[in-house]
Amino acid sequence: MACTVFTIANQKGGVGKTTTAVNLAAALAERKIHTLVVDLDPQANATSALGIEKQEGRSLYKPLHGEGNAFEMLTPTQWSHLALIPSEVDLAAIEIELAQQENYLLRLKSVLDPIRNSGGYRAIIIDCPPALGMLSMNSLAAADHLLIALQCEYMALEGLGQILKVVDRLKNAGVNPTLDVGGIVMTMFDSRINLAKQVVEEVRQHLPDKIFQTVIPRTVRLSEAPSFGKPIFAYDPHGPGATAYRALAKEVAERFKLTER
User: Fold this and answer.
1) Going from the N-terminus, what domains does the chain have, and what CATH number goes with each?
2) Of 203, 111, 141, 121, which is closest to residue 9 (Cα–Cα)?
3) What is the pTM for the complete model shown?
4) Most buried residue, 47, 162, 177, 235, by CB count within 10 Å?
């Protein structure tokens, strides 16, 4: 059964990108969809949010340089159907070093393709750094679909326009001609704030076929869960955050025809 690769990217930090990567992956795994999280952020927030300690040499740094392979970095988590390729600080150097390599935008694709084709996973979710640098560009070149985590605030709309232009440039340059914007996840929604509602409505108006119906609320529990090394389902399984990410996973599974293996 085919494996679908998603990248969750946004050049802006603090928009719920890693929270979405980890909890969407965990919710898909809860649905018995074999899912792999690839932590591509040198800060390794997705790694720690899944309860995995950062370890020297446990990232895609060497495979991206052609040393070893990504299979060696596969790390099981405490949760069934959910695995991780961790990150650590050495990935920060890749931003400079990759640019000196041949086919530098396609390095991640070539590293992940053997895992993708192995039949072990139905979904791969890549969590990117909060910048459109070399790592994020590689993730866009390797992905089938870009999922954009968009905070419910006005300035987020400017950032949305920028990342959509980057997608068009990568497609037009032939780097990843089939890449598409798979969906927009509205995050950190506070129903008490009129501006948040206005931002959601504006995105719905302009990109009605892209925005997911599920809106992720701003909750204390969602903010706390990563510091305990747990997805929201293990930390607050019946709260509004868990309910929202379960609903999002259902939408993603239906939109992209992800099924149990």
Assistant:
1) 4-255 (3.40.50.300)
2) 141
3) 0.95
4) 47
